[in-house]
Amino acid sequence: MTSAQLTCIRCQSTMQEGFLIDRGDGNLGKVGEWVGGVPESGFWSGVKTKGRDRFPVKTFRCTRCGYLESYATGTPS
Questions:
Q1: What is the sign of the dihedral through the CA atoms of 33, 11, 6 and 61?
Q2: What are the residue boundaries of the structural domains of the chain, listed by start?
Q3: Which end of the chain is more exposed for a tag (fewer CB within 10 A), N or C?
Q4: Higher-confidence residue: 2 or 65?
């Protein structure tokens, strides 16, 4: 999926591809992920993700009104 394929559903302007930063240990930035299932608290890790499908999230931003639209596509990580 590319920004050339997307038009804003609110104002019909072009969408620009980007990503949202997810801050983790040591305040290091990484691309956010979609994780399947209901969140469960983990003792050491905050939220349990072991054995669950995880997909990187692409986010598109409207160049006119700023509307954001996100997609979790590709292969699980």
A1: negative
A2: 3-39+52-72
A3: C
A4: 65
pLDDT tens-digit map of 36-54 = 999 999 887 788 888 999 9
Residue 29, exposed/middle/buried by CB under 10 A (0-12, 13-18, 19+)?
exposed
The count of residues in the chain is: 77
Contacts for 23 with CB less than 8 Å, ≥ 6 apart: 29
Residue 2 pLDDT? 62
Residue 19 near residue 74 (C-beta atoms within 8 A): no
Which H helix or E strand runs over 35?
A: strand 33-35
Q: Which of 48, 24, 23 is nearest to 38 (CA)?
A: 48
Nearest-Å Rg of the Cα atoms of the chain is 15
